[in-house]
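Q: Okay, next protein. This is Phosphoribosyltransferase domain-containing protein from Candidatus Uhrbacteria bacterium RIFOXYB2_FULL_45_11. I've checked the sequence twice, so it should be correct. Can you predict the 3D structure?
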Amino acid sequence: MARPEHVSCPFCGERGSNQTCRTCKEQGSALDGLVSYLPYGNPIVREVIGCWKYDGDRSVEPTLQYWIEQSKDRLRPPLENFIVTHVPIHSSRKRMRGFDQAEALSTWLGELFEMPVEPLLIRSRKTKPQAKVHHEKRRVGTLDGIFEIHPRVTELPSCVLLCDDVFTSGATMDAAAKCLKETGVEEVWGFVIAKGSHES
Ligand SMILES: [Zn+2]
């Protein structure tokens, strides 16, 4: 199996902690930290996630769940008083694919860590999958405003664990974290299966 990820700042890669470093915070990153279990640069990891995400092949889900369970004690996300939610895909994409992979992940995590799960966000604007956007075009901040709070949400929790399948530039997850923080959430941690650039 792939070597585990180094613990580092999710945005600049500074080693030592998986919290967002002070410099990246000062530059506007809203996400407080990121738990990531595997390197996206690993061809097996990329292939399995690709089957799931782009081909909609749900038969790979037991493999993904196994990877997550194997890593759960090595690197635990902050869990106290946290609500699990997900970075949603656009509703038209969900209709096409039949499911939202980040939503599925949030359900698994809720069961695994015995945490409450609640959909808090909707995607109001359709964008290309970030891993398919050319590297130079990906920048933190370019996706601000693509998320809104789910209309059914009446009260927001103070701490949120935000799930997505993959973290590449972090632009999508940071835009979602920004939306949550602008509406009163105090702490937002990310959780992904794999981190790294598509090209590596
Ligand atoms: Zn940093």
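A: Here is a summary of the prediction. Residues 9, 11-12, 14, 20-21, 23-24 surround zinc ion (CB under 6 Å). The first strand starts at residue 33 and ends at 39.
Q: Noted. On to the next one.
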